[in-house]
Design goal:
Layout lengths: L8 E5 L3 H13 L3 E5 L2 H10 L4 E5 L7 H11 L4 E5 L4 H10 L3 E4 L4 H13 L39 E4 L2 E4 L4 E4 L4 E2 L3 H12 L4 E2 L1 H9 L9 H13 L9 E4 L3 E4 L4 E3 L2
Parallel strand pairs: 1-2, 1-3, 3-4, 4-5
Antiparallel strand pairs: 6-7, 6-13, 7-8, 8-9, 10-12, 11-12
Length: 268
Amino acid sequence: METVIDKPRILVVDDESDMVTLLQDLLQRAGFEAHGAASGAEARRALAERAYELMLLDLRLKSEDGLTLARQLREGSPMPIIMISGSSDETDRVLLLELAADDFLIKPFSPRELVARVRAVLRRYAPAPVPGGAAADAAAPGWDARPAVPAAPAAPSGWQARGLRFGDWLLDTAERELRRIDGTLCALTQAEYRLLEAFVEQPRRVWTRDQLLERTRSLETEVFDRTIDVLILRLRRKIEPNPKHPQFICTERGLGYVFAASVERVGM
């Protein structure tokens, strides 16, 4: 007997009915189950009635600020949220990711980008197969501090420190993994590893987003120009003592990013 797999259920929240219809259609054609809500109140009722694997939420709701709604929902649920915004301002994007959202889409966006980002976020959370999913994601974030991220395993027996050291971290370029000095493993996606590798191999260099994008593009076809901001935030949450005041990966306003810490080779 063939096993029936439930489709991931997505809630689309937007006060423009045409946009809700469009997004529902795109998601359903991609193999998802999509439901719509025209306000924060409708979204809350929908969430009370059934479970959803992901929410697409417009930032500018007429009846209620989308960011406020996302922050309220975040307090009681680990459900991933992708915010939709008409603003491309970097400050707005960082605010969304820092406070509530797992990813963001800037209008106008293509159907391909929408579906790619939904799949990528779901792959980080959902145990069930994602329709049309590809290899490991590099296109979207997911808060790495949430329960979906497993506890880091201890150092293997006989482990010896080697690699590129910065602070209390060691990047082992032979094994392609990141560990603390005590050997504790920090899990990285392929895109996160490649990005960190670029930084530690050339500390103090200022990288533009385009240059960093080239370091990850070969890993996935579903990579976009805003991916770098998301990957930077994820890396900061994993390696920085205080992600809001980074000491390793620092922003060079108007230019890009720089790895500001000293790096030394250990056991190589």
